[in-house]
């Protein structure tokens, strides 16, 4: 009996693994001798390989971006609402690819992977990777799949930073870059929040300098705190007010010193923290927050982002959300201004929303209509080129 | 040889302790049988006791609000820039009082105080206190000092909440309430930040359910994380950008997995966290964050703050700061609107600043001029009444 998936769902999907044996030189000066990238793909690559779309994931995302796994038919991929036949990222038109980034903990080589030399997890010996490293590794995956040029590269948050970096590093391999809820680089406040999250993990006695795997423990408390804190920055004040207000969980104030959850928002955050610990690795969290902090594409161009974009050949869609204070609309407008000064073609849309940074994952009609309209034009280009 | 204090400094000061033996019934249902309040006072109480000003402190503040201690002549009180002869809160005109709040850790009875029955610190057995409890205890201190009515009650942040509560609870004992960088109550996001701070302390293995004193340890890691996080919410994105930018501490990116501080903002936050652990108690931090979360003066008045203010007789000055996102100007405007609807006299000033919430402690000229002008009028009233 078939699973009762929605009619415009991509349905059952399964990940694949690409193994690479050519060493990858990293920005940190070290190299990965060999590595795996786990990825998913949906839709069909057309004859001239011109309809491929790369999705880049954010901090805690992974390659399972749409559809369902056979063994978990109730929980779709993290951006399923946007990807499928007839959805904004239309798998009827595009061949959609997403890989778990290097350093991740969902199957691509990262701190949790076994180091063949020591037969133990890499742990803290895994090198720090950068957005540029990711882009280079993704380019090798594209080579493997026979994709010379992506019709579009799409990402939200840290994913949007990868889309930007692709357009700068590989100008002739990206026709369109869709940069959503991103920033040209992190602000001091962004870095400060990451630093508190890192300190929470590093100061957890179960962290064991990153070698916790060998002790049969994980730094649960630290990772939970990091996620709770992160989660606050993904929401907005007005969104939280609408969702939780000051609702008390049991209907009354407790007034003792045991600090059980009293307000709904406390309960929600603790749940988010607990759930995260079961699905994410602390070393990967440390690593990817550093990847975020280091991202600075203008650094190679005398701190002038427009000079960086001068290299790019892609056309851009930049999207921001009004209540996003992690990467506020002003940060997206910095990207747009640099693109305009660089003479690039760019469309900019600011979506009214109270969902904060998380809005980029939400099926907000104006947002999805925007993606749909833009990508319909991209699909028309693909068809015109193929015809 | 006299200390070279600035000429408009109040100079050397010393704290005093008031011991109370009449039991204080608390909102939580319990009572304090006896308690101490440590306080400081500056200036001279006039003949008809009409020139007294109460300063209420915020989360991590205390009674040492101005002047210098003999044994630490380099570090003035926390609001010294605003209080002294000729300063905005002019000790030539006013008798200024500030006490460490109940539940504090600087001399007033709180979790660190010895419980005479057990001869151990109260620790987690200390009752949760509310802003209303504080106001009632401060009223007893006023009785002790012979102050029937305060010329003004002044406070920033949680201190401003106490000023509001005073005007509601003791209408005839407050002529002016100066409510600075405050909010009518905490938002879900405010509570969420407090909850992460509490979880950091509660999950520290050195917390020992609050009985850490008996183990000869303190939950340093948790308290440090709580303070680092709090500190981010006291600053603003633009202020941090101006102060730290993305300056690297050693001039270059480290690119290894040891997570030493690299960016200046990281170093600053860690320093703030470390310094706080040496001067503050974790149980007090837990308690006062709950005091903040519970503050809701409208709750007794069917959630209509204007009905609460209808009782008040004081005139109000409400001050907010443009870049304060902890208690944003919009929250101050809620207070102003409720006051106006209640028919109260209120002046409202929004001060341009990039210092975030911390601005209420800064000697911003427009801010200090505002306080000076308002309090000059209050002093004139005092003189007119005395004449």
Automatic annotation (TrEMBL), chains A, B:
AB hydrolase-1 domain segment(s): 51-361
Domain of life: Bacteria
Cellular component terms (Gene Ontology): cytoplasm
Reaction(s) catalysed by this chain's protein: L-homoserine + succinyl-CoA = O-succinyl-L-homoserine + CoA
EC number(s) reported in the record: 2.3.1.46
GO process annotations (BP): homoserine metabolic process; methionine biosynthetic process
Residues binding substrate: 227, 358
InterPro entries reported for this sequence: AB_hydrolase_1, AB_hydrolase_fold, HAT_MetX-like
Localisation: Cytoplasm
Principal cellular location given in the protein's record: cytoplasm
Residues of the active site: 157 (nucleophile), 324, 357
A GO MF label: homoserine O-acetyltransferase activity
EC main group: transferase
Keywords, sorted A to Z: Acyltransferase, Amino-acid biosynthesis, Cytoplasm, Methionine biosynthesis, Transferase
Pathway linked to the protein: Amino-acid biosynthesis; L-methionine biosynthesis via de novo pathway; O-succinyl-L-homoserine from L-homoserine: step 1/1
Site (Important for acyl-CoA specificity): 326
Coiled coil: none
Pfam families (UniProt xref): Abhydrolase_1
Annotated family: Belongs to the AB hydrolase superfamily. MetX family.
UniProt-listed HAMAP family: MetX_acyltransf
Annotated NCBIfam families: homoserO_Ac_trn, PRK00175.1
Known function: Transfers a succinyl group from succinyl-CoA to L-homoserine, forming succinyl-L-homoserine.
Quaternary context: Homodimer.
Protein known as: Homoserine O-succinyltransferase
Source organism per UniProt: Candidatus Contendobacter odensis Run_B_J11
């Amino acid at each position: 009996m078939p699973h009762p998936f929605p009619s415009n769902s991509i349905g059952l999907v399964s990940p694949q693994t690409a193994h690479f044996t050519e060493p990858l030189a990293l920005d940190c000066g070290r190299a990965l001798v060999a590595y795996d990238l786990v990825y998913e793909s949906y839709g069909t690559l057309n004859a001239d390989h011109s309809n491929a779309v790369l999705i880049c994931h954010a901090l805690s995302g992974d390659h399972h971006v749409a559809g369902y796994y056979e063994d978990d038919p109730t929980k779709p991929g993290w951006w399923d609402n946007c990807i499928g036949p007839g959805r904004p990222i239309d798998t009827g038109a595009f061949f959609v690819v997403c890989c778990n980034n290097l350093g991740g903990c969902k199957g691509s080589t990262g701190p949790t992977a076994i180091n063949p030399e020591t037969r133990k997890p890499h742990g803290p010996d895994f090198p720090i990777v950068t957005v540029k490293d990711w882009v280079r590794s993704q380019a090798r995956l594209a080579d493997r799949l026979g994709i010379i040029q992506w019709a579009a590269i799409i990402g939200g948050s840290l994913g949007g930073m990868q889309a930007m970096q692709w357009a700068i590093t590989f100008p002739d391999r990206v026709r369109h870059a869709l940069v959503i809820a991103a920033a040209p680089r992190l602000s001091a406040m962004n870095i400060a929040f990451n630093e508190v999250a890192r300190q929470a993990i590093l100061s957890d006695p179960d962290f064991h300098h990153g070698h916790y795997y060998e002790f049969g423990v994980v730094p649960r408390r630290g990772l939970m705190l990091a996620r709770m804190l992160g989660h606050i920055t993904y929401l907005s004040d007005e969104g939280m007010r609408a969702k939780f207000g000051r609702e008390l969980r049991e209907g009354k104030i407790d007034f003792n010193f045991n600090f059980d959850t009293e307000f709904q928002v406390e309960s929600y955050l603790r749940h988010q923290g607990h759930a995260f610990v079961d699905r994410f690795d602390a070393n990967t969290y440390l690593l990817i927050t550093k990847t975020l902090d280091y991202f600075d594409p203008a650094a190679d161009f005398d701190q002038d982002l427009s000079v960086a974009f001068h290299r790019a050949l892609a056309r851009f869609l930049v999207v921001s959300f009004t209540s996003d204070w992690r990467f506020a609309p002003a940060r997206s407008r910095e990207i747009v201004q640099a693109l305009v000064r660089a003479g690039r073609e760019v469309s900019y849309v600011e979506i009214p929303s109270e969902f904060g940074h998380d809005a980029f994952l939400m099926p907000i009609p104006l947002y999805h209509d925007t993606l749909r309209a833009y990508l319909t034009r991209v699909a028309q280009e693909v068809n015109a080129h193929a015809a």
